[in-house]
């Protein structure tokens, strides 16, 4: 069995879907294809859940937008729209509409998961129908019928034992079978839909690869593979040819957005090779993640996390930040289900960084204000450098206003204040200053 995963960008319009169907058509079966929601559907559904939960009047408009996006995609994609796909897609629209017409419970995460998976159910229904129409017979699988999880809504944990049996029965390894299924969702013991965390479709593909002892897995992206830096922020990027599993885990942990952080472990456990390849240039080699010691080529890898907020805490009295404070602060952070991206403490302060998009961070700050003096700084970013050199570090320090730094043998993390504008430095002077840095480096 081979596992393919296609993200939302690859299926964002009719030509995207035609392109991935061509890639699927060229593949060897048995093949299982995991697909995300189309384009920005998950973001739209997130807004829809917020509106539903808070009783906001945008609800109808958002629902209509989701419907319209999928309906026009269908009309762009099919020359003659088969009745069946309209029936199936309409059934999903009705199910979604019925859900959000009923009053919401007071459990946001539960409600979120009952709505968010419609994106994947719709996209896979459309792609499966299109493949059938162009003569590529396939089986559409509702992944919730075989992927079990606990009821930790929004970030559910897979129940490996019970899933194994069901997945192996559902996805048989018959020679010619092509399966189309959803990423990102599963089902809890009561049969409610659960989700595995944003961008979780990579993880779904890896879970299926693990349970089915897949020969390999390919994640198809709009870049040539894994690059040493995000081309949106860095000028000269280089594609990495191979990356060891442990290194890929580190990169995704620090926020490299190419792969969902939970993806690698299930593959590593069974030594299943993972390719990251371009759906635009499918014949190019891409990046191979496999066993090994070092990435090839070995270069500094930059990971940028934008939209960070720094929360600084100081005790209200004249005391120090003690171990007790740390336990208390972390227990609140866990209770609010917040992920910290950076932490640092001094004798009288403790600071941490979270994504501005984290749903609860303001509530957490309000709670902390009962016990500490709280200061908030927004518009920050984190730059992590794996395999840094002294030159890369000097460059970062020279180009940015660094508020905090953390370094170990392989990794350096910088907290950058983007509120602070650099005085304009002409390119020539900047380059000569950098040369001075390199010169100093030689002297060291
Ligand atoms: N559609 C989901 C998301 O956008 C899952 C995924 O794309 O992996 O987060
Ligand atoms: Mg996605």
Automatic annotation (TrEMBL):
GO terms for cellular component: cytosol. Pathway: Amino-acid biosynthesis; L-threonine biosynthesis; L-threonine from L-aspartate: step 1/5; Amino-acid biosynthesis; L-methionine biosynthesis via de novo pathway; L-homoserine from L-aspartate: step 1/3; Amino-acid biosynthesis; L-lysine biosynthesis via DAP pathway; (S)-tetrahydrodipicolinate from L-aspartate: step 1/4. GO terms for molecular function: aspartate kinase activity; ATP binding. It comes from the Bacteria. GO terms for biological process: homoserine biosynthetic process; lysine biosynthetic process via diaminopimelate; threonine biosynthetic process. The keyword Signal does not apply. It catalyses: L-aspartate + ATP = 4-phospho-L-aspartate + ADP. Residues 2-278 form the Aspartate/glutamate/uridylate kinase domain. Keywords: Amino-acid biosynthesis, ATP-binding, Kinase, Nucleotide-binding, Transferase. Its EC number is 2.7.2.4. Pfam families: AA_kinase (PF00696). It is an enzyme of class 2 (transferase). Belongs to the aspartokinase family. NCBIfam families: asp_kinases. This is Aspartokinase. It comes from Ancylomarina longa.
